[in-house]
Amino acid sequence: MAIVEDEAIILRSLRFRETSRIVIALMPRFGKVHLLAKGAREVKSRFGASLEFLTRARVVFYLKKTRELHLMNSAAVEEAYLGLLTRPRDYHLACAAAEFVDRVLADEDPHPEVYQALAAFLDARNQEPDAGGPDGGLRGLQLRIAAKLGYAPQLENCARCGRALDPPGVFDVAGGGAICRRCQPEGEALPLSSATLARLRLLLADQPEDAVRDATTDRQVGRVVEAFLRYHMTGYQGLRSLKCFADWRQIDGA
Asked: What is the architecture, at CATH level 2, of domain 2-80?
């Protein structure tokens, strides 16, 4: 057993017995880790607010390779993301980002680049309200994380024959990419305009998008990303947070 320290983003925090919590935290060095915080629910807990959902904290815990649940020693808040609590749209999107990472990452499989991508997304949602279009940059984050885990869609050339996509045909979900008009998809095929293909390339490369938004393109991008993730990423079958977001937008009239 070793006592270790790392930065962490709290993905989930669950009640455990009368006074404790089990925390699922994402860390750059140790990946997604399950931690037992004894006494965390007591009024005068030494953990304070450091274990709240979406908090970024500095944590110290006892790492034992033979266990799946590690004992937490201490934690201190580094960023509480309080701005999210005042803006329902950005809060729902931050929840969706955390839920996505929790679903697609295996336990204790470190991916520092995924941690940095999630932290950057939370920082942006906390500091730049209403930025990133209708989805606040969530679809781009999902694409880039999928790519970092080895599931990048083929967007530069035809996923079937390798020819140039000028103009594109459709997005071949099973084939994992755009195909030209000469090729036939294996199964489900989604509409793919030149504008949608260009937007997907920008999202995957994490490059600024055009200021002018097109609702049709936004819808196509969302359908392509969702279908691609559901087919190719084990354990991903959509996000409850996005359903809550859609319900909120309907109620709010957004």
From this structure: Beta Barrel (2.40)
